[in-house]
Structure formats: structure tokens, C-alpha cells
Amino acid sequence: MKDIILEVVYMNINELTLFYNNSKIHTKEQITHIKNSIQAFGFNDPIGISGKENIVLEGNGRVEALKSLGYEKVPCIRLDHLSADEQQAYVIAHNSTNLETGLDDGILYQELKQLQKYDFSDFGIDIDKYLKTLVRVQQRILKPLKKVHYLISMDINLNDKVAELICALKRIDGVEIESTIN
To answer: What is the pTM of this model?
Structure first.
């Protein structure tokens, strides 16, 4: 396939036509989550359109969210280089490919812990439920192991606080402390 250069064009949102046979389900709740994401992070993903009717091949849920937010002009990319059959196939492929895999629980757990200032429930993620599930998974995975080793580097200027922490850790059954200086 030859290279296609996609150009972003700004269209009046009322000139867009939602895809009549979209198999992707967009609930009111999901549209709310899309709106919340747009409000929090901006609109960063152009709508894929085709034909004189500006049929939305990808982005139907985003168009609904944008309309309810009062957007008048939206960035779009034209997908007219695809044949009619390719456009239909693309709609299915676009809506299906992000459903193929899940998330890496370990990485997601670390990211969610780091980003606790965000209310991910606004985007359809039950963070408390998910973190509890990940903790249980982590415990189940680690339980058969005899020991877990942690390497902690600390500023020498915090020596008094570190000494207090080490003393507290030593009082816990099963905790061994080894230190090196470098």
C-alpha cells in the first residue's frame, strides 16, 4: 500500500453524519466518560470521516460527547482513500483492535498508585476496586515465594530517621536487614 499523508481538516460538527451501521455500542455512561476525558485532557484524536456526507467512520462516541460539550468545529481526517468495502472493514477493525488485549496489571498498578491525584472514575475506571484486585493478585503471586528483596537507597543526611525505620522493621517477624555503604 502506498503512503497516505493524512491532513487534519476542521469541520462544523453539524455537518458530520454518524455511521448508520456502527457495531460499537456507546452508552450514555460511556459518552459521559468521553466528555470527562475531553474536559480533563483536551480533544487529541481527530474524527475519521469519508464522503460528501462526512460519514464518521471512527469517532462516533467522541462526536456525541463533543456535541454535548458545545463544540462547533472539530478536527477530522478524511479517509476517502479507502474503498467502500475497506471503509466498512476499517470501522470493524478500528472498533475491535483495542479490545484484543487487556492491561498489564503490574504496570497499571504502579501507574494508578502514582497518579492518585486523578479521579479515574470520571473516565469509567473503578480505581478502588481495581487496586484491591491488583493487591490480591500481587499477594497470590508472591505468597509461594519465601523472600522478597527490596533495595532502598537513602540520603545519608536522613540517618536518624533511617535508623528509626530500620529499628521498627527489625521488630517485624520475618524481616531481615542488610546494609551496605557506598
So the answer is: 0.67
